[in-house]
Specification:
binds cytidine-5'-diphosphate
Length: 203
């Protein structure tokens, strides 16, 4: 039987870490759907046509190195505005979600568009400055050279694009549990997410 958990939220809110921990806790598969858009964005930077890349995207493309850079994040949010690109990526996500044992998908439109019938929906958010601080730390730890101001402006630009696009904009699903992680450690945020999922499972 398939059981789906949708985890949405803005850039660098901690969705990735929380989704991985939730998936491990409930022994479910996890798909970081941002990687689909990043994989398309990365190939567009290299000169390819976004729609053609989306049409031929393979699971292996999500494992390619270099998808976590700030440049690829911006390219991802630019291709994510394109309705035809989103339509091509939709079935891959639904197919992943239908697997036996259940799945956790994280992104921007999982609870609203990809899996509107997901059994549990979370919307993980945090203050933009705090999100930028977390992403800045991650990038420095990953060996990238950048400034906090640059990271903050990148995060804000993506938030604006993700919220403002015509197709599948980032909005809180009516039936989502909102977790604001601004004042939480990652451990507390993970515990809050697991507890919200547990409640969703038992209700
Ligand atoms: O990790 P981070 O939160 O910075 O971003 P991500 O989840 O890897 O997503 C990169 C970009 O892909 C986002 O800024 C969105 O524009 C886009 N995206 C989307 O439109 N829909 C999704 N389900 C997932 C990501």
């Amino acid at each position: 039987m398939s059981f789906t958990i949708a985890i949405d939220g803005p850039a660098a809110a901690g969705k990735g870490t929380i989704s991985k921990a939730v998936a491990a806790h409930f022994m479910m598969a996890h798909l970081d759907t941002g990687l689909l858009y990043r994989a398309v964005g990365a190939q567009v930077i290299a000169g390819s046509d976004p729609l053609k890349v989306a049409q031929s995207l393979q699971a292996e493309d999500l494992q390619r190195p270099g998808l976590r850079t700030a440049e690829v994040a911006q390219a991802a949010s630019q291709v994510a505005v394109m309705a035809d690109v989103r339509a091509e990526l939709l079935e891959f996500q639904r197919r992943f979600a239908r697997r036996d044992g259940g799945a956790v998908l994280d992104g921007r439109d999982i609870g609203t568009v990809i899996l509107p019938d997901a059994e549990v929906k979370l919307f993980v958010t945090a203050d933009a400055t705090i999100r930028a601080q977390r992403r800045y730390k991650e990038l420095l730890e990953g060996g990238f050279t950048t400034s906090f101001e640059q990271v903050l402006s990148d995060v804000l630009a993506r938030d604006t694009r993700d919220r403002g696009r015509a197709t599948a904009p980032m909005v809180v699903a009516a039936d989502a549990v909102v977790i604001d992680t601004s004042d939480m450690s990652m451990e507390t945020a993970i515990a809050a997410a697991i507890s919200a999922v547990q409640k969703g499972i038992s209700s």
